Amino acid sequence: MQLRVNGQPIEIDADPEMPLLWALRDVAGILGPKFGCGIAACGACTVLVDGSPVRSCALPLGAVQGEVTTIEGIGSAEALHPVQQAWIEEQVAQCGYCQAGQIMSAYALLEENPEPTDEDIDNAMGGNLCRCGTYPRIRAAIHRAAALKLARA
Amino acid sequence: MSRLGRITRRVFLIGAATVAGGVAVGYWYYRRPYPNPLEDGLAEGEATFNPYVKIGADNTITLIAPRAEMGQGISTTLAAFVAEELDVTLDRVRVEHGPPSYAYYNAAMLEEGGGFNFWDESFTAETVRGLMGVAGKMLGLQATGGSTAARDGFDRMRQAGAAARVMLVEAAAARLGVPVADLTTENGTIVHAASSRSVTYGEVALDASKLNPPSSVRLREPAEWKLLGKAQPRVDMLDKVTGAPIFGIDVRQPDMLFGTVRMSPVFGVAPVRSDISAAANMPGVVKIVPIETTYGSGFGVIAENTWAAFKAAEAIDVEWGKPAYPEDDAGIMAMIADAAKSGSATAMRDDGNVDTAFADAPQERLIEAEYSVPFLAHAPMEPMNCTARLKDGVLDVWAPNQMPVLIRWFCSDIAGVPGDKTNVHTTSMGGAFGRRGELDYALYATLLAKETEGRPVQVTWTREEDTRRGPFRPASVGQMKARIGDDGLPVAVDMRIAAPNMIASLMSRLFPSLPAGGSDPAITDGSRNQPYTIPNYRVSEIQVPLSIPVTFWRSVGNSVNGFFHESFMDEIAHAGQVDPVEMRRKLMADFPAAVAVVDKVAEMSGWGEPLPEGKARGFAFTLSFGSWCGQVVQIADTPAGIRLEKMWIAVDVGTALDPGIIETQMTSGAVFGLSAAMGQAITFGDGMVEQSNFHDFDAMRIFQAPEFEVAVLENFHRMGGVGEVGTPPAAPALANAVFALTGKRVRQLPLSREVRFA
Question: Which pLDDT belongs to residue B525?
Fold first, then answer.
């Protein structure tokens, strides 16, 4: 079947029951989304489908309708997205494994709500687990990203 | 005997002789350096000076940080040691983990293993520390753990940077025909100011590497530091915000297969009946093979993709045997509690005469309490995984791991190839917390790689396997007793701590043919070695013979005893009607570094100032891994449950090498401890773990996280660790706050069994 991922069409030959996460990682070789739990409980696999954050570990390939965006699609080392820039300026990541998912959730939050409060952040980010406890810096980085985005706009 | 058996026996004997009977081999052996492992893998024009520095002709500077990066920031701090003395900034260098090598032994990890109190600087304590360090070198123990990496690398890696710089300057002096004294270095360039000429490190690196290393070097004084002592940007931050494929699970090799394992959920048993036929016929499945190792029995599934492997593993029809331990949690915990009450005990601290002090104690002056904590899984975000390839007599293992030298030994033995034909590639880790000091994931990947005719195979565990297979932080029970004096302070305490022996459990997996006996000092770590002066003070270890696999979990025994000791100190303070912080000031008066930490965290939090109705604070203190840490947490009663509002942390680390990373490690350690305290438990039914994934073994979420304020002090004259230090006081600080808020003394973890959190 065909998927559009980060603006590119990709042909995927896989069981439609296969979760999107494994199609991206093991079939298409797109490694930004991470495997954490397999039951949509930790958020490490978060990607966007038509702009909305979804847990790709629990979304069957056959149910994907729309454009898929992974962390590789929002910015690069040479052209960082404001959320990524803010993550560097706040030195958020520790082990870093959950951060692609955190950044995708934060990206989606800021698309919808350009100036979120702490409460908005808590509500939007509660599905993204971080075992290193980077939460205080995630909050700070989302506020910083909001300011960077508004400044760039 | 297998080759592995010979190696491990020999090494074990050296270790045992050194520890028990003095240095069995001469000083020359200890002084003799290991070969530089970088000499084998140099690129064209690249030069190496020692195991920590490589410089290319194009002035690409590569520093080796040979400890596992699991989020603690160690690659940044270790690179800064070398860079500081090499006189380059961190944005100028590449940082690599490097190959497994005895050259990267960790002396500090064993140094504190002798069981002496951290503040004990007697001749005996220092001698044992020295001997343990020598043992670490002779064992070639390349290991990440015990919050030791920075302490271990501090001198050695700064010396490596300084020596390379001396050699580079010497080569530049010869090249430019000027005296060494007229040259200065500037971030990778050597400058002759008088003639305005300069050469880069890269231009003279090959010449310099042929010079004899200096016999001694002068290291910069802390006042001269440019990098150390200041927050450095982490060297891997860009990779981590762009989704770069840096983790074990991201390894991709041509023609790679995928796999998983399904191991026995009952520990120590094999299948009594199994049928793999349905699973083996599922689409995408290549092969299913039985697995039998010291870690347990089960099956490995090889498939075309991870999802197919997961589905097939689930479809294996298997019935497991019965356990040799009680089948349910009540039976297991009763066994530990009985041991705490009446099991054979060894006093690990025994000041004064505790029995006499209790003999005539009036009942109203006595308090007694039983504390308990459950088994815990590590639950790092990245589930266990490993990739292996056995092709043309060479084994490659890509492993997110804390023990590369051990992985090389064991995997080469399984694969039947020599150690020098075994390449271990240590990747970044999505968390570890002690779990990746075990070897099971690497053994399984190697076993499956023997079945794929040279194709690499990546073996990823499901979260369910990761949660349920252990090895776990042991459950433990503490029987605590105190006699309160007329001034409200304790005159006698007696603490009996019962738990399974972690060292014996680890030995049964790694070296099952060797006898494992003796004490496990971790059982009482955090209770027997705290900076309190109490006239009669006994802490005893009681081992519980349970065959559930247990191991080191962030802060190890301190995670247990921090809760027991500091909750009980809070009980004592309330019983004696003394303010808990004021009581610590009095009992810790002999330890100025501890008092300074207590004072600082009390001042930051405004301890003692009145709070609005429905809010309360708790305090706790633990000295662990050489650092002195006090925490105050403030909680509030809300309609949704108890909410954590703010935590203040003061920590004395002796020397603060990177205040930014120290701050993040304090909050990280505290969140880890709070997560466990609030809701985590691994429990058993039918001999199997009842939890399976984050829905029933969750951790703190962002909406539960308090604000943090951290103060880093440098009063004590010896450097402490950082990665685990924030964890031990977190649970008791919270439990003490819950008491202050509700009047309910919760003596078992998780607290969620008795109170509700928002």
Answer: 96
Which class does domain B248-321+384-460 fall in?
alpha beta
- ipTM associated with this complex: 0.98
Q: How far apart are CA B726 and CA B625, in angstroms?
A: 10
On whether both A69 and A88 belong to a single domain, the answer is no
Q: Are B248-321+384-460 and B329-376+472-753 the same fold in CATH? A: yes
Interface list for B 540-559 with A (CB within 8 A): none
Residue B673 has pLDDT above 90, yes or no: yes
Residue of B402, B702, B707 for testing the chain A interface, max A β-carbons within 10 Å? B702
From the number of C-beta atoms within 10 Å of its C-beta (0-12, 13-18, 19+), residue B83 rates as buried
Which residue do the tokens 């060494």 mark? B180
Cβ distance A44 to B70 less than 8 Å, yes or no, reads no
B701 touches chain A (CB under 8 A): yes
User: Which of these three, A23, A52, A73, is where a domain ends?
Assistant: A73
Domain end, chosen from A40, A55, A73, is at A73
User: For B235-262, what is each residue's pLDDT tens digit?
Assistant: 999 999 999 999 999 999 999 999 999 9
The CATH code belonging to domain B329-376+472-753 is: 3.30.365.10
B76 at A interface, C-beta within 8 A: no
Same domain (yes/no): A93, A148: yes
**CA B152 – CA B728 distance, rounded (Å):** 22
> pLDDT for B615-665, tens place per residue?
999 999 999 999 999 999 999 999 999 999 999 999 999 999 999 999 999
Residue B138 scores a pLDDT above 60: no
> Which residue from B674, B671, B647, B652 is spatially nearest to B662, judged by alpha carbons?
B652
On whether both A17 and A57 belong to a single domain, the answer is yes
pLDDT value, residue B23: 28
Q: What is the pLDDT of residues A51-101, one digit of tens each?
A: 999 999 999 999 999 999 999 999 999 999 999 999 999 999 999 999 999
Q: What is the spatial order of strands in the sheet that B47-50 belongs to?
A: B47-50, B53-55, B61-64, B93-96
- Mutation target for B interface from A102, A129, A132: give the one with most B CBs within 10 A: A132
Q: CATH number for the domain including A122?
A: 1.10.150.120
In a shared domain, residues A64 and A86:
no
Is residue B757 scored above 50 in pLDDT?
yes
pTM, two decimals, is 0.94
Show which of residues 76-135 on chain A sit within 8 Å of chain B, judged by CB atoms.
76-77, 80, 84, 87-88, 91-100, 103, 121-123, 125-126, 128-135
Q: Where are the domains of chain B?
A: 33-106+142-241, 248-321+384-460, 329-376+472-753
DSSP β-bridge partners for residue B676: none
Tell which residue, B178, B462, B419, has the closest CA to residue B299. Answer: B462
Helix H or strand E segment including B49: strand B47-50
Tally the domains of chain A.
2
Tell me the nearest-neighbour CA distance from B579 into chain A, angstroms: 30
B431, closest residue in chain A (CA to CA): A95
CB of B672 less than 8 A from some CB of A: yes
Segment B562-573 mean pLDDT? 98
For residues A12 and A36, state if they share a domain.
yes
User: Number of residue pairs across A and B with CB atoms under 8 Å?
Assistant: 175
- The parent domain of residue A116 ranges over 82-152
Q: What is the CATH number of the domain that holds A9?
A: 3.10.20.30
Fold of the domain spanning B33-106+142-241 = Aldehyde Oxidoreductase; domain 4 (3.30.365)
Of B305, B307, B291, the residue nearest B258 (C-alpha): B305
Beta bridge partners of B53: B50, B63
Residues of chain B positioned with their CB less than 8 A from the CB of A122: 702-703
Which one-letter amino acid corresponds to residue B415? A
The three state secondary structure string of B561-588 is: HHHHHHHHHHHHHHHCCCCHHHHHHHHC
